[in-house]
Design brief:
The chain is mostly helical. The chain has a domain of 55 residues. The chain contains 3 helices and no strands. The longest helix is centred in the middle third of the chain and has 20 residues. The termini are far apart.
Length: 81
Amino acid sequence: MIVKFDEPDPKRAEKEAEIKKLDDRSLRKLYNETRAAAKAARRALNMEELYRLVRGTKTIQRIAGERGIIIRSVLPRTVRS
């Protein structure tokens, strides 16, 4: 399952309500699947789909943040000297 939102999305409230019902593990899984779809859209240069998917990842991050969970968009990199 992935999450994407049109701008404006008339079903946003319903979609967000469904996301909020997920447990923490399922929420992280949803984020990872949506992010993977966004990466694929970016590689395919499908910018409209990418924008819709990024809105989905940001919404998932916001909902996770409301629960005190931080989902980072990128892995931290080690600085080498």
